[in-house]
Amino acid sequence: MGASNARHAAVVALTNFRTIPPRVNFKEKTVKEIFASNVFNEEVQKARLPKPVFKKLQQTIKKGLALDPSIADVVAAAMRDWAVEKGATHYTHIFHPLTGVTAEKHDSFVAPTEDGGAMLEFSGKELVQGEPDASSFPSGGIRATFEARGYTAWDPTSPAYILENPNGTALVIPTAFVSWTGEALDEKTPLLRSMEALSIQAMRVLKLFGNHSATKVFTTVGPEQEYFLIDRNFYFARPDLINAGRTLFGAKPPKGQEMEDHYFGSIPERVLACMLEAEQELYKLGVPVKTRHNEVAPAQYEIAPIFENSNLAHDHQMLTMETLRRVAEKYGLACLLHEKPFAGVNGSGKHNNWSMATDTGENLLNPGDTPHENAQFLVFCAAVIRAVNKHAALLRVAIASAGNDHRLGANEAPPAIISIYLGDQLQDIITQIEAGGAKTTKKGGHMEVGVTVLPKLPRDAGDRNRTSPFAFTGNKFEFRAVSSGQSVATPNTVLNTIVAESLDYIASKLEADHKAGKDFNKSVQELLAAIIKENKGVIFNGNGYSEEWHKEAEKRGLPNLKTTVDAVPHLISKESIELFGKYKVLTEREVHSRYEIYLEKYVKTINIEVQMTTVIAKTMIIPAALEYQKNVAKSIGAAKAAGVPAASLAEQEKMLTGLAHAISDMQKKTDALAHHSEHHASGDTLAHAKYSLDKLIPAMNAVRQAGDLLETIVSDDLWPLPTYREMLFIK
Ligand code: ADP
Ligand code: MG
User: Fold this and answer.
1) Whose CA is nearest to atom 8 of ligand 1?
2) Ligand 1 neighbourhood includes 465 CB (under 6 angstroms)
3) How much distance in Å is there from the Cα of 302 to the middle of ligand 2?
4) What is the pTM of this model?
5) How far apart (Å, rounded) are the C-alpha atoms in residues 251 and 343?
6) What DSSP line would sit under 510-547, residue for residue?
7) How far is the CA of 12 from the centre of ligand 1 (A)?
8) How far apart are CA 621 and CA 703, in angstroms?
């Protein structure tokens, strides 16, 4: 097969790429040997640090005590020696600016000596603080351009690690990124603050329940990452995928996911090989990846770790996305983390499993054997229900992006209405409490599977309702509306903060009752009943995709914020600013800066898509269609010249007219889009965002529709873009 255009070249190259180089061997090195081998973890710290230094560092890591600056030099020296043994020449402070991706700047350990030689240096000061030029990162107006300085501060609660490259390694130090005036410029600082806020309030509640052994409460997170893998040659032949992360054109394939043959299907060899290497890399970094499987859409997969404390889970999640991207390249694949790379095909999300646990290892959302007796569990559960009800809009803001707008409410992902699914068992208990106390519980117990060779399976307390954005799943809540490409920091920051507020409310009530000499059980009962009565509107156990739910939710007064533009303004509401301020998670200025950045990002995303749509229409699709039109006209002309009677050419003439129509329609729509994008909305960022939503997106969709129609008409050998049937089905 000859390669007449980039698309054909991609298909040809793919047919030649069938041998997979062996790159990992778990027989030579077992997972146990590999796991965390590139992490400066507790074990390494213990082996390499003097005992008192090790102890102090552990107190900061485990108990959240302030870091003793006097130990920094010793820790830095130990880190450097360890890293150099692992081949490191450089170190980097890694941070998570509000661009949503990871940032790093590498500095070498090398320092010149007086005699013209070199030594390897890494001081405590360099470990604790870095000063990257902050002027190129979004600050949402916090940082004036004349004050470009920002600094990175070592986060000892997330261990340093080694980043490997074929040509060397670097020591990576997780940090928080703040402005010169101490304001958060990143995703991590507020996450850490929110964990602290929740811990303080949760500890008050635990004390009331007589728990005196725990000293800290952590939030835990296990994020399930969905992603697509397609052949890299296709990727490079699609300028929209390269620049916008999603396809801006593409007719529906004849075979989509209607055969339902992909989910949990056998994993293609090349993909499995890629997964194995990605997992090996993640094991080295101490990321506890646990499951892998095919997802619902063709060419879609999932990887999920065992949960960890939120801060570590966040860092490991960023590493997971980065590793998937990097390793995919080695297998001739491209990893797509966009929420909706292919229209009409299921998009990707990131289920955010979330709970709270004490430093003594108790999961506070674990009902135990007799859930109705477990008052403590119910109190923590009620705190979450109340939080989600009161602050549903903020949770919606936390997952808002141009990409996620394609998923939410599209019958593949939860709706934009934030509601809670509890499941039969918990719902039953909650209903009884509201009515004045729980006496019985629906049988949890065991479920007989009817096949005696199988072990008895414990019945899942919450069965699986995939249509709910926020579901109780036995011993944790699962926030399902989180998007595939986003950092989990913001959703968890919001979650932690709103639950902290609820726990504060609960603790204050119970403490006051206690002071007044009221019976503890009685005050818990009454408080739970009151909370449920007031907040039960957010609970919905039915089908979240249904039309009735949208009507019902409206009746209940639940916000239905369909787009990012609808959602983001809730971030700067009076209640939001007060909430984040009260729990010291975000100052008013920080809230405003985030509001600006989210909207700016939305505007920029749509703008890139608009530019890309125009370019592809003008330079790829329309030229191909014109070429085909010329060929058809030529062949009709030749037939006429050869004496074929006009009557028998009528169908071809009709087809030619149809084609001409489609082309001129495409041209018109493209011109209209170009016109809209040149006309700039006046006003603030919100006005720009509204304009993008109301004018640019519909105009862009119209061009796409015209382009997708042409794809079904124009001769296959002229069509320039890899098609859905190729990208999704040739593996
Ligand atoms: P699925 O939702 O696909 O059925 P699982 O129920 O197996 O998947 O678990 C999903 C994720 O939930 C895993 O990453 C797991 O580690 C995480 N998880 C389990 N317990 C907790 C917890 N207490 N806190 C946070 N995440 C948890
Ligand atoms: Mg899940």
Assistant:
1) 224
2) no
3) 10
4) 0.94
5) 9
6) HHHHHHTT--HHHHHHHHHHHHHHHHGGGB--S-TTSH
7) 42
8) 11
